[in-house]
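Hey, quick one: can you model this chain's 3D structure?
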Amino acid sequence: MSKIKLFKNFNKNTQVENVKSNVLYKLLISIFTISLCSYFFTLRIANVENTQHKPALGLTWYDDDIIAEYSFPILRDKGDYLTEKNKVEKDSRIIFTLNPFEQQNALTKTDRYFQGLMNDSTINQNELSKVYSDFRSIVNTIYQSGFINYELDEIEQDEIFIENESGLRNIIKKRSVFDITKARDLVNKSLISSKSIALEQLNLEILLLNKFKANYEYSEPLTNKNRSLRIKSIPRTNGYIKKGDVIISKNTIVTEENLRILDSFYANKNLFRSDDDKILVYIGTIGHLLIILAFLYIYIFKIKEEEYFDNLKFSLISFFIIFVTISSWITLNYEFEYPLEFLIFLPAISILSTIIFDVRTAFYLTITLALLAAGLRGNDYSTGVMMMFSGFMAIFSVRDIQSRGQLFKSILFVFIGFLLPIIFFGLESNIDYSELLTKLAFASINSALSPLLAFGMLFLIEQFTYINTNLGLQEYDNLNHPLLQQLNEKTPGTYQHSLGVSALAERCAGSIGANTLFCKVAPYYHDIGKMEQPEYFAENQINIENKHNMISPFQSAEIIKNHVIVGEKLAKKYKLPKNIIDVINTHHGTTLIKHFYAKAIELNPEKIIDKNDFTYSGPKPNSKETAIIMICDQAEAISRIENKTQEEFEKMINNIINSMIEQNQFDYCDLTTSELNTISEVLKKTLSGITHKRVDYKEIKEK
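Sure thing. Here's the predicted structure for all 703 residues.
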């Protein structure tokens, strides 16, 4: 039997399933992904240094001398520039504008306020006059020193600028001016001796807060402009190279100065390029990207067809590619004094792809994304290797994941994946220890966040898509699940049958490399629909008459078929995973209920019996796992037939598989003839151990 393509394995009658396998949709995903990645790749062309091969710091340069083809300025080290920029931003003084009329306005408001209190008989007028005089003096002091509409605690500098009406700026000490808090404290402290008058009664604080305005008013536009001008004045270059000068000589150790000069050389190269040269660079850049992506796409299209033919999984892979592309571009194009490459959470994608797909797919995806990140970051070999190795360690940590508790194991493995390349590359290039520690600190952040990000995304994927992973399946590998408890109570025969199918399917899956956990768990639930009318199924007819003898074969067939429909409803009610629901629907496929079909023909010899009345509605199995469960379901049933020889059992197993092939039940799954033969042999060996005849042991006779 030849291998059948997976794109047939969906029900074409529903729009959802068409979207899952639609080739046009797949083509659009591919075009969008490649176009977006190409856009970010071509953005590097503006910065030529991001597209050139550069020597590694601390290593010997064995190629020919690099000679300057033109004169150019040497760009400063980005780290030095950012340090000075941060210092300038921190030291830039805040600018206030002078409003010379506010002092007189405040005094006028003070006079009016106290004059309004002169006629208040509840206040001692002599004391009021003294408070009035003292308060007026305090107001003068505050405004002469400077009253600002800004919190002093928020000003980091020791000095501020005051710009007058002529545009001239004076520098004054921050400690000499007043904000509202400092002014309020001065009033309370100075007037504390006025014991005969309660200060609260005068409401002087309200006067300060609501009536007085600052004579030094904060100007955000002037402050920002001043800061911007100071930043622009920071020199971006440090030296000059003339045409013909040697940038790096052959057989010399590469220094930071060499790299800085080389970066400056490439950064100025765009000025000397012709339009034809730029077109060729664009072509080369897009070709660079396509070669990297081809590594993954060839694997998916030709080897791992399941990911290709399932558009949701294919979309996930495209999302991972876009995520790494944008992350890598951000880390290269935003100036920051710390190692931003650790914001590329590639290990998270390695973990996710291992759990959702498999180890081999995760391996190919990790290599592709690491090469993609390295290419986008200007052929950054060290970052590419570091991301690749940490991704491999992430894959290794979850390759046999049993629970979400392995999160902590993943954190450790990812950190080791970063630790070794950082140390070895650092030693090789004689990196400064402080820089080494900084990289390790950021690597630890990535190591902690990557597994958290992966498991968080996995939860969302399982909740909002039909994708189910082994990690999610393990929650249903529990015989105490409410559905299974009901199955055991209402239909003990069906319950035992389900356990038997589970054991057989798990063993068969292991023999051909299929998903053993799924083949163990899904059969537990495949016959839950029998709980509605358990007495109509042979395994539950214990010490009772066969009820099918009392109804027509047509009614019997409807009852038998109905257990699939009921099972699906129950599964959805209890929110079982989509792939387990698929097993409920496919474990009989579109097979014929032969017994009642034959009985109908026997009872109606002159009538043409419609086979559709005795055929399950399907769909047919859509994967190796669902096909295995279908075979094992029938194999387990025949194992309960008594008085059959080993040869008869083997013949019956062969007949089951041959009958399914004749009824085209394996059309939409990728089982091969070799795998079917292996499954057949496993069933024969397993069932022979269950059904073998026992020795008739003698009894001890009584004397």
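One thing worth noting: The two ends are 65 Å apart (CA to CA).
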